[in-house]
Amino acid sequence: xxxxxxxxxxxxxxxxxxxxxxxxxxxxxxxxxxxxxxxxxxxxxxxxxxxxxxxxxxxxxxxxxxxxxxxxxxxxxxxxxxxxxxxxxxxxxxxxxxxxxxxxxxxxxxxxxxxxxxxxxxxxxxxxxxxxxxxxxxxxxxxxxxxxxxxxxxxxxxxxxxxxxxxxxxxxxxxxxxxxxxxxxxxxxxxxxxxxxx
Length: 198
Fold this sequence. Notes:
Keywords: Disulfide bond, Signal. The protein is α+β, with helices and mostly antiparallel strands. 33% of the residues lie in helices and 22% in strands.
């Protein structure tokens, strides 16, 4: 009995510090309950391939999603150009996503002239209302896109949230960080990584 409690506590700690696992069985449940997994995300330093499709050194897969705030369609090609992109994938129910967002917001306010911050809410595993409440709660100043049909989830091979992609202005994936970015210093390091991308 004690061992079972210890394992449950250990799993909870991993989920809170690393990331929330998501199922690869499809992204069609709007409530998100059936598609959530107990698998924890891992730090990019220990993950051999955090994303099965969007991998460093290769072009970022194309996507077109809806802007959560305006309802307008936004494509990756529209985002590319003069600035590198830090693209953060999240869900409102994910505790590590909640924990890292204030640091991302702070970094966006500080480095927004040099780096483009973009959020992608896994709305097919969440809900638009909860996503909007999350954006309002943390005063997210950057564009947030809604993956309402799960196409981004499938195309990018998302295995855990949060997942953060660094994409060069030319559309090349520079880095993939799976799991929570655990400090403001770690976010700043990712910003510098993005600014060095050409």
